[in-house]
TrEMBL record:
Gene3D superfamilies to which the protein is assigned, alphabetical: Calcium-transporting ATPase, cytoplasmic domain N, Calcium-transporting ATPase, cytoplasmic transduction domain A, Calcium-transporting ATPase, transmembrane domain, HAD superfamily/HAD-like
Transmembrane segments: 65-83, 89-105, 252-274, 280-301, 670-691, 703-722, 743-763, 775-791, 811-829, 841-860
Recorded superkingdom: Bacteria
This protein's name: Ca2+-transporting ATPase
Matches recorded under PROSITE patterns: ATPASE_E1_E2 (PS00154)
Keyword Magnesium attached: yes
Species name: Microbacterium thalassium
Intracellular or extracellular location(s): Cell membrane
Length: 882
């Protein structure tokens, strides 16, 4: 039976006691059966908020016309129409239409891609069904389900709590209240405001600490969040690069207007007619305006985002793509990111000896193993193996294998349990042992557990606790890279409360577990070094453990790790210096990570920081790029991050950094191409007026060139896969704009050179007696071919073009060939030739144009070669000095 009530918004549930809630929902605290859950899912639909309505198509279309550059083109089109140059006017409006269509299509595609990515990032929920705890997509949660939450989870549905353990929820999303609320199970009055319904959990809010279980009372749009979901939607921010290109566009707009006015005046002074000068002005505006800049940006970004996704890095905020490219420090968690987080207990230390699991096990070691397996949250998964926190799984599995505890004993609910939280560094459990004693077991970081101990277990009794002895053994195990957990016990006195705080305990021993480094991480760290990126390991683990693993990965320096205790003493300046020298920060409290990130950033670094826990969220938000774990991490961390790793792997961050650099590089290659060819046209058209020749290019011809040369090839340039040396060079400077100084210089020199070549061909042809149409055709062909070579120059910013296989960017090969082919086609196809006022060219003339145009390739290749020689000489000198 599926009751109707669940359809109503979750009101009144807070006032009912648990049995009533269960009865009304046909649910039980033991969970639904899988069949019942399936029925309910069919009945109530998926637990998802309705997708926000997509931006209407006409808004997207209208947006394509909002740009100062497009405005100039529209004015040019209107002026041309008034002058009744119908072909020119038609061509201008055609360009506008094509441009808008392309931009429209691109933007819709980008929006689709983003939606697909969001689907990849859906969260999961833990529910009890058919008696076992299952992890299911949050979408499949139904009213009546028993959901389990723990610190770091995002609550998947509105639920009435039936069980809590120090449960704190951050409900700021719903209530605006940033202080976490302590939850309970006692009903509250029916008219209680959402913010004070302490026996309820609400969709989308975050569990800051503790554990809890609740019966789902509402899903999807029927939840509290569903009712206000329209209010919490946010607009994506503009990326820094987007701002850069926007300001670049504005500046280009101004330059275009000034030069148009100047050339117009100069032309009139030297005797051209007003109508001629209008045509020149329009041609100039068309030539100079890089109307495809925004499209290049969208294409490059969406290609970058999907390439990153393919490698396991999901971009949540667009700026991350380019910020990754300028990252100078990666501050990475150790456990799970640099290492596998697959722990196995390798050593067991007690006062009776130091053994390797599997060896004959003495009494004391059995007690150590048993205690470690009973204050332990590892559970049986549906498949029957152990699941949960890696430390818990390792300790439970070694105890089960040794026969120190049975699965049945482990499954029995404890009398009291304080879950492990990174900020506390221990877990505590009270269980009643078969002999009737109430045992309080604690496991955690040796310093923390040691502070609770008064005695040390020896065979047959105890001796007074010896801090030094235990710390020496701890350090000894840690130096082998083992993560060490101390285990202690005490018999709770009969009159003590079940939740009595731990004190006067007896240390049973230490368990040392190995966490192997992930494959490929050492290589990725080396790559970072050559890419000018420093890698810092951040961990809550013991300094010796961390340093041993850092050494294996090439992260360690000869300086000892910075520790959390040390950090508390240091001021920011000294800390910056320490962090610069040391590769590792160990035994840091969760809050320390935020300070590390902030201190590094204040020192001028661009920091990518990883995190997985609830307490990592502030650091992830503060970092230039916050990186969260898709598998091992919490929802809270993912929410705060810019990038989510689907494989939790450090090497993926490095690949994302490389792709970030490639994306930025592609945008800059396309921009270089666009600006240099525009400069060439502007230079040629203006100079031509000043030297008093017949008009160089007619507006329709200029538009044609823009379409077939820049228009299609620059978009293909945005697809460039990179030159392969992206990680062999230092990060881009923080103040650098879209183009570097070298590229600005190259833009100026090649732009002017190409303009001169076009002018020279035009003038030479006129002087040898060709008619104006023919001379113009020659100049046009030369310009199209110059652009063809210039695309090659643009592809390779640093390396010689001959070292870059053309097949790496097939779209570019096709469009470049198409540009020249289409130019040839219009010269021979009568109707087009008439419209564009061009004439056929002989094979010899084509060859001549191709030869002079090649000069721009030679020019840039020579420059690159000179630069390479210089670099090599500098390296030789450096080597000789060493
Ligand atoms: P990391 O930052 O490398 O993930 P943690 O903050 O998770 O390190 O762990 C810090 C310390 O807390 C560990 O060195 C260990 O002593 C202790 N610890 C970790 N996990 C558990 C656990 N499940 N139960 C008890 N203690 C733990
Ligand atoms: Mg951890």
């Amino acid at each position: 039976m599926v009751p109707e009530r669940a359809a109503a918004p979750a009101s009144g549930w807070c006032a009912r006691d648990v049995p009533t809630v269960c009865a009304e929902l046909g649910a039980s605290v033991g969970g639904l059966s899988p069949e019942d859950a399936a029925d309910r899912l069919a009945r109530w639909g998926p637990n998802a908020l309705p997708a926000p309505p997509p931006t209407p198509w006409w808004v997207v279309l209208a947006r394509q016309f909002i740009s100062p550059l497009i405005a100039i083109l529209i004015v040019a089109g209107i002026v041309t129409s008034i002058q009744r140059h119908w072909v020119d006017a038609g061509a201008i409006f055609l360009v506008l239409a094509l441009n808008a269509a392309l931009g429209f299509w691109q933007e819709r595609k980008a929006a689709r891609d983003v939606r697909a990515l969001q689907e990849l990032a859906t969260t999961s929920a833990r529910v009890r069904r058919g008696g076992v705890v299952e992890v299911i997509p949050a979408e499949d949660v139904v009213p009546g389900d028993l959901v389990l939450v723990e610190s770091g989870d995002r609550v998947p549905a509105d639920a009435r709590l039936v069980e809590v353990n120090a449960l704190l929820a951050d409900e700021s999303l719903l209530t605006g209240e940033s202080l976490a609320v302590l939850k309970g199970t006692a009903p509250v009055a029916a008219d209680t405001a959402v913010a004070d319904q302490t026996d309820m959990l609400f969709t989308g809010t975050l569990v800051s600490s503790g554990r809890g279980a609740g019966i789902v009372v509402a899903t999807g749009a029927r939840t509290q969040l569903g009712e206000i979901s329209a209010l919490v939607r946010r607009k994506p921010p503009r990326t820094p690069l987007q701002k850069l290109t926007h300001s670049l566009e504005r500046r280009i707009g101004v330059v275009v207007l000034i030069s148009v006015v100047f050339v117009f005046a100069a032309g009139l002074v030297s005797g051209y007619s007003v109508s001629d000068m209008f045509r020149v002005a329009v041609a100039l505006a068309v030539a100079a305006i890089p109307e495809s800049l925004p499209i290049i940006f969208t294409v490059a970004m969406s290609v970058g985002v999907s390439r990153m996704a393919r490698r396991g890095a999901i971009v949540r905020t667009l700026p991350a793509v380019e910020t990754l490219g300028s990252t100078t420090v990666i501050a990475s968690d150790k456990t799970g990111t640099l290492t596998e987080n697959r722990l196995t207990v390798e050593r067991l230390w007690t006062m009776d000896g130091d053994i390797v699991p599997g060896e004959a096990t003495d009494q004391l070691t059995m007690r150590l193993l048993r205690a470690g397996a009973l204050t332990n949250e590892a559970g049986e998964s549906a498949r029957g193996d152990l699941a949960g926190d890696a430390v818990d799984v390792a300790m439970a599995s070694v105890a089960l294998t040794a026969g120190a505890v049975s699965a049945v004993e482990r499954a029995r609910p404890p009398e009291h349990h304080v879950p492990y939280e990174p900020a506390r560094r221990y877990s505590l459990t009270v269980v009643r042992e078969p002999d009737g004693a109430r045992m309080q077991y604690v496991k955690g970081a040796p310093e923390v557990v040691g502070a609770l101990c008064e005695s040390l277990a020896v065979p047959g009794g105890t001796v007074p606790y010896d801090v030094e002895l235990v710390m020496i053994e701890n350090a000894r195990l840690s130096r082998d890279g083992l993560r060490v957990i101390a285990v202690a016990e005490r018999v709770l006195p009969p009159d003590a409360a079940v939740d009595a705080p731990p004190s006067g305990m007896t240390l049973l021993g230490l368990e040392g577990m190995d966490d192997p480094p992930r494959a490929g991480v050492a290589d990725a760290v080396a790559e970072c070094r050559s890419a000018g990126i420093a890698v810092k390991m951040i961990t809550g683990d013991h300094p010796e453990t961390a340093q041993a693993i850092a050494r294996r990965l090439g992260i360690a320096t000869d300086r000892p790790p910075v520790t959390g205790a040390e950090m508390a003493e240091l001021d920011d300046r000294v800390l910056t210096a320490r962090l610069e020298e040391a590769g590792v920060a160990a035994r840091v409290a969760p809050g320390d990570k935020l300070r590390i990130v902030e201190v590094l950033q204040r020192g001028g670094e661009t920091v990518a920081a990883t995190g997985d826990g609830v307490n990592d969220a502030p650091a992830l938000r503060a970092a230039s790029v916050g990186v969260a774990m898709g598998r091992g991490g919490t929802d809270v961390a993912r929410d705060a991050a810019d990038l989510v790793l689907t494989d939790d792997d450090f090497t993926t961050i490095v690949e994302a950094v490389e792709q970030g650099r490639v994306t930025f590089g592609a945008i800059r290659k396309a921009t270089f191409f666009l600006l240099s060819t525009a400069l060439a046209a502007v230079f040629a058209l203006s100079a031509n007026v000043l030297i008093d020749q017949p008009l160089l290019f007619l507006p329709v011809q200029m538009i044609w060139i823009n379409l077939v040369t820049t228009g299609i090839q620059d978009i293909a340039l945005a697809l460039e896969p990179g030159e392969g040396d992206e990680l062999a060079r230092p990060p881009r400077g923080r103040r650098e704009g879209v183009l570097s100084r070298v590229l600005w210089a190259r833009t100026a020199v090649t732009g002017v050179w190409m303009g001169l070549v076009v002018l020279a061909v035009f003038a030479w042809s006129l002087n040898t007696g060709a008619d104006v149409d023919h001379a113009r055709t020659l100049a046009m062909a030369t310009f199209v071919l110059l652009n063809f070579y210039q695309v090659g120059n643009a592809r390779a910013e640093r390396t010689s073009l001959v070292r870059l296989s053309p097949l790496r960017n097939k779209a570019l090969v096709v469009t470049a060939a198409l540009a020249v082919g289409v130019m040839w086609a219009v010269t021979v196809w009568e109707p087009a030739a008439a419209l564009l006022e061009v004439t056929p060219l002989s094979l010899l003339e084509w060859a001549g144009c191709a030869a002079v145009a090649a000069s721009v390739l030679v020019l840039v290749e020579a420059e690159k070669f000179a630069r390479w020689l210089l670099l090599r000489r500098r390296r030789l000198v450096d080597e000789m000095q060493d």
